[in-house]
Automatic annotation (TrEMBL):
Signal peptide: none annotated. It comes from Oxalicibacterium solurbis. This is NAD-dependent epimerase/dehydratase domain-containing protein. It comes from the Bacteria. InterPro entries: Epimerase_deHydtase, Lipid_A_modif_metabolic_enz, NAD(P)-bd_dom_sf. Residues 2-146 form the NAD-dependent epimerase/dehydratase domain. PANTHER family: BIFUNCTIONAL POLYMYXIN RESISTANCE PROTEIN ARNA, BLL5923 PROTEIN. The lineage of its organism: Bacteria, Pseudomonadati, Pseudomonadota, Betaproteobacteria, Burkholderiales. SUPFAM superfamilies: NAD(P)-binding Rossmann-fold domains (SSF51735).
Length: 237
């Protein structure tokens, strides 16, 4: 089996470095890099993540994104290329895949979900909000050399997300209040602890610096973005 970190480095580090150096050689003024909140870590407990936090990636993907950030900062020092880094949490929108898609599929089928006793908070970012911020980062003079976090500025619990999806589908959320400890233990037995952590744990980002430095605000609400995501999903079902 291939080394995951080596694979991620090929795309996230080597390819990014090559693109940035080509950009600098061709006179590109600014390079906006989409990193990941995984650079900060996987979970929050007592405080939301900030861009100024000491990086603490816990998996190969997050480590590769951190290495790419550091490489870009070095290239910036060598060439004068302005670098702006954006670290999004989970990105969703029409056409979303992976766990978000699977959750929509379960809600659509009306399958009872053992998630009713979860009391967490997760930051998400709608694709429209992320794209809007990237445009601002490309154009705003104050963005140069900075790292920004981004979200919809409306953190949701896993049960709340299920209810929002169900409402957008015109369905009733079927949530069963199974104790969180039982869910975590069951996931561990199945070798799915990492996936369970994303459902059970909290991951919040603080975007106050992004808002104050750039004068940026999310352009769509979570409810609007969930509605658009679900509408696209249902149109393809």
């Amino acid at each position: 089996m291939a080394d995951p970190l080596a694979v991620f480095r090929t795309v996230n580090v080597d390819a990014t470095k090559d693109l940035a150096r080509q950009a600098a050689r061709h006179g590109v003024h600014r390079f906006v890099f989409v990193s990941s909140i995984k650079v900060n870590g996987e979970m929050t407990q007592y405080a939301s993540f900030k861009a100024s936090d000491v990086p603490a990636p816990l998996d190969a993907y997050g480590q590769s994104k951190l290495e790419a950030e550091l490489a870009l900062q070095q290239i910036s020092r060598e060439t004068g290329l302005e670098v702006v880094i954006v670290r999004p949490p989970l990105v969703y929108g029409p056409g979303v895949g992976a766990n978000f898609l699977r959750l929509m599929q379960l809600v659509q089928k009306g399958i009872p979900l053992p998630l009713g006793a979860i009391h967490n908070l997760r930051s998400l970012v709608a694709l429209d909000n992320l794209v809007d911020l990237l445009i601002v980062c490309a154009e705003n003079l104050a963005a140069a050399g900075r790292t920004f976090l981004v979200s919809d500025d409306h953190d949701v619990s896993t049960p709340e997300l299920v209810r929002m999806l169900a409402t957008a589908m015109g369905r009733r959320a079927r949530l069963v209040p199974v104790p969180v400890g039982c869910l975590a233990a069951g996931a561990a037995l199945l070798g799915k602890s990492a996936a369970a952590d994303r459902l059970l744990g909290s991951l919040q980002v603080d975007i106050r610096e992004t808002r104050s430095v750039l004068g940026w605000e999310p352009v769509v609400s979570t409810e609007e973005a969930i509605g658009a995501t679900v509408a696209h999903f249902l149109s393809r079902a």
